[in-house]
Amino acid sequence: MRIRTRLADWWFAPAPPERLAAVRILVGAFAVLWVGGRIWETYAVARLGGSHWKPIGVTRVLDAPLPPEAVLAIAIATTVALVAFTIGAAYRFTAPLAAIGILWTLTYRNSFGMVVHTENLLVLHVIALALSPAADAWSWDRRRGAPPPPPEAGYGWILKLLAAITAITYVLAAIAKLRIAGVAWLDGEQLRNQIAVDNLRKALLGDSIAPLATPFLDHPSGFTIFSILTIVLELAAPIVFVHPLVARLWALSAWGFHVGVVFLMNIWFPYPLLGLAYLPLLRAERGFGWAIARWERRRNARRGGAGSGPDEPSLPS
Asked: What is the DSSP letter of 56?
């Protein structure tokens, strides 16, 4: 019972609602751009027909592809719901719709070609945020001038859940490497071959090869270090719960890993490269608090001091 109590106290430790709100805004904005910016691509892919369609995940409930117009309508509706999710408008209703919509839209798009696993973390984060009180601060829903909710109201657990989802994805990536190559992965040869083949394919297809691929491929011994560091970094992801400083150091290392992938393979993972995958580990509200407070002061100055108080600014309404 004592262990369970301590675990519960740790998991449900208080956190400022503004931190969760900042994560919602940043993740939601990325989701809007990711889904909305590719609406016509999604529509074009949906027009390829059943011969190109291999349903995965939730799309397996379908016996045949949807009409392209229906796919387009769902993608547009999902984008609208994600905008509402981001600004916290009618959050209790729009957030679940946004979560369902992004899960369906991205899964359906991936049913017409290569499965893009890099989108999984984004979708899981949106789903987790949609099931949480992430719009209790800095949202359209919040009454202007209302007192801010206390940190004890239940905001820490969802940040830990988001961090756990991030950590699990890295651990699973390490497990996948070890299942495919076993301990042979650690000698670096598998990684070197993967980088060489990927860059050769790019060169043959007229794409740009990674800037550091050729210099590093000439030094095979270095890939042993890279392979070991990759596995250690991914398996060690749960240390983000040891201490906030350790979490930030791990996040910086993981971000550097993705930067290395760009320079060695010219493969981009936008969600972690922009730092969004690691937001639950950071004090994400700091920059937002300054920006929104400044906007509120300017608005109040124009209105002669009327509006919401400076202690808890709201989003523009």
From this structure: -
pLDDT band per the 50, 70, 90 thresholds, residue 314: very low
Identify the three-state secondary structure at position 139: coil
Collect all residues with Cβ–Cβ distance below 8 Å to 200 and sequence separation of at least 6: none
Tokens for 81? 């719901």
pTM > 0.85: yes or no: yes
Task: Answer whether 61's CB lies under 8 Å from 107's CB.
Answer: no
**305: pLDDT confidence band, cut at 50, 70 and 90?**
low
Sign of CA dihedral 270, 276, 281, 283: positive
Residues in the chain: 317
The pLDDT-based confidence of 11 (bands split at 50, 70, 90) is confident
- Is residue 114 a contact partner of residue 52, using CB atoms and an 8 Å limit? no
Domain parsing of the chain, residue ranges: 15-142, 156-283
Supply 140's token pair. Answer: 């359209």
Average pLDDT along the chain: 88
What's the confidence (pLDDT) of residue 188? 86
Q: How would you class 243 by CB atoms within 10 Å of its CB: exposed for 0-12, middle for 13-18, buried for 19 or more?
A: exposed
- Token pair 């359209």 in the structure block, residue: 140
Residue 64: how many CB atoms within 10 A of its CB?
Answer: 8
Give the Cα separation of 300 and 36 in Å (integer).
Answer: 33
